[in-house]
Design goal:
With about 250 residues, the chain is of the alpha+beta class. About 45% of the residues lie in helices and about 15% in strands. It has 9 helices and 7 strands, in the order βαββααβαβββααααα. Strand 5 (about 105-110) and strand 6 (about 120) form a beta hairpin. The radius of gyration is 20 Å and the shape is elongated.
Length: about 250
């Protein structure tokens, strides 16, 4: 991941990369007034300065105050999602209106007080023994993040009672989105270790988290001793641009 900030704002539009990342818009006083993410930085940022007739009043006001731009290139869209949230919480840009009240914004919750911790999306934090991560910029953003992470951490996402003695696994196990608690493919201690890895990933800084993900995927795959789970780890590794070959 690397940051780029040329001195001339107009020149930046011609040097924007065709890569995923996060962009920051500053006013004349160099205050960050907006933070956003993009699958393709060049297309997204340039769209603010073209076809202005299609912009809503809020966007027109934003564009009128932009005096400087900078961006951070990321390896993946997932990394951009996480970094966007970190920067919005750090700078509290006034044009990111939807984030002004964190209580109405989605968080990832790990129900750590349960024997087999579930993962859910909630709109407020409570003192209930759970662990919370966020806020995220939208429900879509948090769902996309969880979908990608589930390819590695294989967390529980069903309502059946866990006994470890079911005769056959659920659909999620067959599509490589579950560790197989219901059939005893992993025990309580092993599952909580997986969830601890997920929590550690979410609470780290972006660069450090991605650097640690390879070893976490290796540990999870070796513990489960199951090729479908190794394959799931490789899927997210490729998306994150990591070297992983168990």
């Amino acid at each position: 991941m690397n940051a780029t900030r040329p001195s001339d704002c107009a020149q930046k539009l011609d040097t924007l990369p065709e890569r995923p990342g996060v962009y920051l818009m500053r006013d004349a006083g160099q205050t960050v007034i907006y933070v956003g993410k993009a699958v393709v930085l060049r297309n997204r940022v340039r769209s603010y300065f073209h076809a202005s007739a299609r912009h809503d009043p809020k966007t027109l006001r934003l564009v009128g105050e932009i005096a400087d731009l900078e961006w951070i290139v990321t390896d993946t869209e997932l990394e951009a999602l996480i970094l966007e949230n970190e920067l919005i919480k750090r700078y509290r840009p006034r044009f990111n209106i939807r984030l002004r009240d964190d209580k109405t914004y989605p968080y990832i919750k790990i129900h750590w007080q349960e024997d087999y911790p579930r993962i859910s999306i909630v709109r407020r934090m409570e003192r209930d023994g759970g662990r919370y991560f966020g806020p995220f910029t939208s429900g879509f953003a948090v769902r996309q993040t969880l979908d990608a992470l589930r390819r590695v951490f294989l967390y529980l996402d069903c309502t059946r009672e866990i006994t470890g003695r079911d005769p056959k696994p659920c659909l999620y196990y067959h599509i490589e989105r579950c560790a197989g608690l219901c059939i005893g493919a992993v025990d309580r201690a092993g599952y909580r270790q997986i969830i601890a890895g997920l929590a550690e990933f979410l609470e780290r800084d972006t660069d450090e988290a991605l650097a640690q993900l390879t070893s976490r995927m290796q540990a999870a795959a070796e513990h489960l001793q199951c090729e479908p789970h190794r394959h799931a780890a490789r899927l997210l590794a490729r998306r994150a641009g990591l070297d992983y070959n168990p």
